[in-house]
């Protein structure tokens, strides 16, 4: 631990420490020292040449071109009744292994990722072939697990993806390993190439967090979050906290909301789902209703909360939505996707190995012959039977608003905020 006298203290406007909360100021001091030690080891914005900046601009321009092209294709397909739309983004579960044991962990099929086998995941070469295929579907990639930073080849795969033109690259991580990983030479470009780092932070009460996560190092997550915040002064990337709200952690979610506001990092609220549906009892809890209304109020006032007021209202209240499953494919560690959706209850999904095809379109066309994805969301025997209310469902539903009514949806502004708005 370090003497706070030599460090700038955090200023809290909204957050109020309560009994049992970790000492945020003390962790901030540790985080600043970590950042000072790591900064010379990573590629900073000041290290970039004019050629580097041109390449990055070209990457983003390529992504925008592909996104617009996909939007036009999806408009035509949807009008024709074909719901095998090109993905808005691709969710790549790089591995099932995880260093945490979160009680709410769910792979949308009722299993914990950390309990699932991981012996068939693609190696580095296979991962690169998968990236070659995935870029034909969408330029936006969500790196997740398990815990993705447990893969030693993550920086190599990210570099390959960056050069292919993926944007934005987004990662969901518990961040517990990042202080050690960023000190390694092969992780030098990680923060420069990862456009958005989303850190899971479900509360600030140390004992309750350790129990929720099944670990003993809850403090490490917040320390590394504060370290990343400090490193934003050296390299530009978007930093967010992802907070799963459970019936037992509503008060803690409020604390994270307040702290995120004070820190100037983005907040991502995630009401918990179990298997195929949200916790309906929690949605009616007066404490949850108060929290959800507060989140909406702050968003309208300009707080850094991911999602438009429309999206957040739907998400926080688990309102009905238009789900097109092809827009958010989940890719397993072995390169397969569950078609049409891994969360289907009424219809048994089929596994399609993406590496057997030359493009996402080809894989989707093969999937159509096995299970019809059109109007798949619903409770009929030939529909999914689920009521999933994850953020991914509502982001793709907002995209569909733009597909159906492009001039009225306000989708363009939402895309700008998520992918293009400056991180600081």
Which features would summarize this protein structure in a list?
alpha/beta; two-stranded antiparallel ribbon; 11% strand; globular
Describe the structure.
There is one protein chain. Helix 9 packs parallel to helix 11. It contains 15 helices and 11 strands. The chain is globular, with a radius of gyration of 21 Å. The protein is 41% helix and 11% strand. Strand 7 (273-274) and strand 8 (277-278) form a beta hairpin. The two termini are 28 Å apart.
Shape type: globular
Distance between the termini: 28 Å
Strand content: 5-15%
Class from secondary-structure proportions: alpha/beta
Radius of gyration computed on alpha carbons = 21 Å
Q: What assembly state would you assign to the polypeptide chains in this entry?
A: single chain
Q: How helix-rich are the residues, as a percent range?
A: 40-55%
Structure annotation, total helices:
15
What's the SSE pattern?
HHEHEHEHHEHHEHEEEHHHEEEHHH
> Low-confidence spans: pLDDT under 50, at least 5 residues?
1-6
Please, what is the average pLDDT?
A: 93
Largest sheet: 7 strands, parallel
- Strand order in space, largest sheet: 6-5-4-3-2-1-9
Summarize the structure.
The protein has 424 residues and is α/β, with parallel strands linked by helices.
Element layout with pairings:
Layout: H1 24-38, H2 50-79, E1 90-93, H3 124-134, E2 141-144, H4 154-164, E3 169-173, H5 178-181, H6 190-193, E4 196-200, H7 206-213, H8 218-231, E5 238-245, H9 250-263, E6 266-271, E7 273-274, E8 277-278, H10 280-284, H11 286-300, H12 309-316, E9 330-331, E10 336-339, E11 350-353, H13 360-370, H14 391-404, H15 411-420
Helix pairs in contact: 1-8, 3-4, 9-11, 11-12, 12-14
């Amino acid at each position: 631990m370090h003497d706070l006298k030599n460090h700038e203290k955090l200023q809290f406007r909204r957050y109020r420490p309560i009994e049992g909360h970790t000492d945020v100021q003390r962790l901030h001091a540790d985080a600043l020292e970590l950042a000072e030690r790591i900064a010379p080891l990573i590629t900073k914005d000041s290290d970039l040449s004019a050629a580097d900046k041109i390449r990055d601009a070209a990457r983003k321009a390529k992504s925008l071109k592909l996104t617009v092209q996909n939007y036009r294709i999806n408009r035509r397909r949807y009008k024709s009744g074909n719901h095998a739309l090109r993905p808005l983004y691709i969710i790549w579960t790089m591995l099932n292994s995880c260093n945490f044991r979160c009680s709410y962990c769910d792979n949308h099929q009722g299993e914990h990722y950390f309990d699932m086998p991981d012996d068939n995941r693609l190696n580095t070469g296979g991962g690169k072939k998968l990236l070659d295929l995935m870029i034909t579907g969408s330029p936006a990639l969500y790196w997740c697990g398990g815990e993705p930073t447990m893969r030693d080849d993550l920086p190599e795969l990210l570099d390959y993806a960056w050069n292919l033109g993926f944007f934005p690259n987004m990662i969901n991580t518990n961040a517990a390993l990042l202080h050690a990983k960023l000190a390694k030479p092969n992780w030098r470009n990680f923060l420069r190439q990862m456009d958005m780092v989303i850190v899971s932070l479900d509360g600030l009460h140390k004992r309750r967090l350790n129990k929720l996560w099944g670990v003993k190092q809850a403090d490490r997550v917040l320390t590394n979050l504060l370290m990343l915040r400090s490193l934003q002064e050296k390299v530009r990337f978007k930093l967010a906290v992802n907070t799963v709200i459970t019936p037992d952690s509503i008060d803690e979610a409020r604390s994270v909301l307040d702290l995120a506001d004070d820190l100037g990092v983005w907040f991502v609220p995630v009401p918990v789902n179990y298997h195929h549906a949200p916790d309906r009892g929690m949605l009616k809890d007066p404490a949850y209703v108060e929290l959800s209304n507060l989140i909406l109020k702050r968003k309208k006032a300009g707080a850094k909360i991911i999602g438009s007021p429309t999206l957040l209202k739907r998400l926080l209240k688990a309102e009905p939505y238009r789900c097109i499953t092809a827009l958010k494919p989940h890719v397993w560690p072995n390169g397969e996707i569950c078609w049409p959706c891994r969360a289907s209850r009424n219809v048994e999904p089929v596994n399609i190995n993406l590496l057997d095809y030359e493009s996402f379109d080809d894989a989707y066309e093969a999937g159509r012959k096995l299970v019809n994805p059109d109007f798949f969301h619903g409770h009929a025997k030939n529909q999914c039977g689920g009521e999933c209310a994850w953020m991914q469902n509502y982001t793709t539903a907002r995209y569909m608003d733009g597909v159906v009514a492009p001039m009225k949806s306000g989708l363009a502004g939402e895309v700008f905020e998520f992918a293009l708005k400056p991180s600081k």
